[in-house]
Specification:
This protein is α/β, with parallel strands linked by helices. It has a single domain, classed as Alpha-Beta Barrel (TIM Barrel). The chain has an eight-stranded parallel beta barrel with strand order 1-2-3-4-5-6-7-9, surrounded by seven helices. Helix 6 links the parallel strand 5 and strand 6. The longest helix is centred in the first third of the chain and has 18 residues. It is globular and about 65 Å long. The model has no long low-confidence stretch (mean pLDDT 93).
Amino acid sequence: MPAFKDMPLSVLNLSPVNEGETPGDSFAKSLELTQHAEKLGYNRLWVAEHHNMEGIASSATSVLLSYLAGGTSSIRLGSGGIMLPNHAPLAIAEQFGTLESLYPGRIDLGLGRAPGTDQTTAAALRRHVNSGDDFPARLEELQRYFQDPANMAIPPQVKAVPGAGLDIPIWLLGSSGFSAQLAGQLGLPYAFAGHFAAENMKAALQLYLDSFQPSVVLDEPYAMTGINVIAGETDEEADYLGTTMKQQFLSLIRNRPGKIQPPVEDMDALWTSQEKAMMARWDAGTIQGGPESVRQQLEDFSSSVPVHEIMISGSVYDQAKRLRSYELIKEVQKQSTAATASI
């Protein structure tokens, strides 16, 4: 596994909608972030499918990806992820076939099996809500649509146009062992949702590595994890900026998700002692601080977690501070001298 200084870094963008702003404002900021990440040398940027959440605007994921790809030229873009049970596999094959045709060699298709929303909204999306147990079958159907019909013994009656014959990397995403094991067995790249399920991270990643079987896609396993990172000019600034993300998770704990809130000086004025204790699960997947602190934490993380790539999420209310955070992370990576990890 690479050390932090050699680790590909990527960006997870949830298209956050700030209090007092609109989804249109969020999209403009998302494009600015994508262009900034491209300029800084980040490897890829993914957007995630969520529904019925005022603070997240990336529900029409493939449409947003086309907008971001049209405003950039080289950074890889993808879904982190498309919640496959919400969609007909043929529709996803056509959407991502269109993206790959428009922006060849730049599109990733990350897939999850959760609904990305509450059960009532899931019913509105799917009409029939299931447990996700049919995810492997849906995945197999989707993979068939990307096969080249000329190489198939029996030509398919239904073709994905565009989509058929295109080389679009499929990633499996997850926060538990199910997708980790499936990705390993199928020889696909795997991305773990460490930004909100850090307690399962090492076990799921190890399960993926242990389950991996070489395939036409990969000869060796390739694992990525998401983590929350907020870098400030000082530890104190980062702690202040980080209260926006704490408020975001607090709203989820209370089952009252809303728009992204500005940072506050004192979180103790907002949460109860019980809620503060509940946040410890989320805090385990968060790195924040000034440049030197972030560098040390990321070096320690990279040497202890079996991943080939890190995808960084970080909800910062002020756009300039958000962009600066990603800039500081790349700066400290260039300064890192940590030896190659031996995991």
